[in-house]
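Figure 6 in text form: structure in, sequence out.
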């Protein structure tokens, strides 16, 4: 069993790490060197006469962290940042002691719907705008999003209302276009284990919202996050969006117990998606309150001016008055747990 993992600073020369491995072996460690994107990981097990591993490895200038124990996810391990890490998206900070509300339509159906929704959710207290440009749908015969045709409206919405935008990426081929348009890239449930996509996002300079897979365990989810972290991108937020179980009263089973589990295992911020997690607009309010109470750093909800006319996921979308009421309901819960809602007045135009 591995006793510790030493993590290098980014871009340390291979020769320095090879010398460290030789020195550690001479000191009595059984060691293995692994390259993780821009970093190296040294997996080490001390022998009988080896010096204390934490002291030995921490004394090296090119080692940034030492994780004790047999961590399968050393870069995301809570012991790296015991108080949790923060992720900055424009003027928004996830994990910074405030609760973030992300809201918007499931998909960019028309520029008019997008701009109307952006104006109203900003007015009601949203911190960020969510909108799907590329939509991976179960059926090939359902609306797949506007694609690149929506970019102009996204840019206008951000310019008018100052809300940072998060949108889903489904293919590496979309990366350059989205990087020029949105502030945060979302990896959806169906792509959580798309390792080429995760590796590409690990090397980009944009925050990533990583949703849990449809039936992913916590370990599988954290391993997916490790791909992003290994590439050098430490701006990662995890999103619980429900998992598939035998229960059919909701679209998925929203696993709120995973929020405190993750808080104990990883330093990454965690938010919750009650829209996809339940598939029912009437459950968004109670599950959002519960998510904030459970320790989530925020929620992401689908909002549409006229849900009955939405081209995708209208049944799990709040209307505009419903979203305004949600913000009102979340305020006392967030205050009670010491993570007040991020005030729009704190935002700076992007």
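Output sequence:
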């Amino acid at each position: 069993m591995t006793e510790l993992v030493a993590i290098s600073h980014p871009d340390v020369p291979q020769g320095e790490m090879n010398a460290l491995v030789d020195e550690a072996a001479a000191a009595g460690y059984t060691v293995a060197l692994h390259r993780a994107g821009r970093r190296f990981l040294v997996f080490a097990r001390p022998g009988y006469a080896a010096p204390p591993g934490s002291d030995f490895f921490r004394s090296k200038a090119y080692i940034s962290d030492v994780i004790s124990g047999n961590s399968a996810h050393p870069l995301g391990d809570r012991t790296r940042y015991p108080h949790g890490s923060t992720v900055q998206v424009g003027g928004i900070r996830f994990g910074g002691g405030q609760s973030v509300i992300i809201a918007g339509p499931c998909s960019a159906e028309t520029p008019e719907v997008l701009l109307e929704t952006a104006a109203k959710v900003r007015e009601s207290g949203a911190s960020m705008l969510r909108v799907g440009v590329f939509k991976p749908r179960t059926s090939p015969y359902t609306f797949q999003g506007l694609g690149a045709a929506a970019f102009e409206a996204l840019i206008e919405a951000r310019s008018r209302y100052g809300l940072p935008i998060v949108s889903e990426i489904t293919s590496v081929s979309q990366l350059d276009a989205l990087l020029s348009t949105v502030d945060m890239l979302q990896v959806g449930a169906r792509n959580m284990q798309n390792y080429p996509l995760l590796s590409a996002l690990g090397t980009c300079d944009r925050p990533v919202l990583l949703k849990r897979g449809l039936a992913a365990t916590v370990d599988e989810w954290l391993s997916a996050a490790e791909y992003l972290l290994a590439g050098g991108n430490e701006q990662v937020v995890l999103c619980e969006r429900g998992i598939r179980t035998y229960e059919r009263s909701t679209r998925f089973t929203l696993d709120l117990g995973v929020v405190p589990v993750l808080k104990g295992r990883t330093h990454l911020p965690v938010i919750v998606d009650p829209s996809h997690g339940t598939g029912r607009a009437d459950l968004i309010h109670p599950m959002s309150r519960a998510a904030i109470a459970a320790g989530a750093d925020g929620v992401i909800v689908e909002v549409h001016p006229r849900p009955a006319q939405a081209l995708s996921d209208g049944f799990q979308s709040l209307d505009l008055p419903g979203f305004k009421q949600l913000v009102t309901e979340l305020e006392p819960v967030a205050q009670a747990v010491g993570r007040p809602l991020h005030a729009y007045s704190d935002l700076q135009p992007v």
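Caption detail: The radius of gyration is 21 Å.
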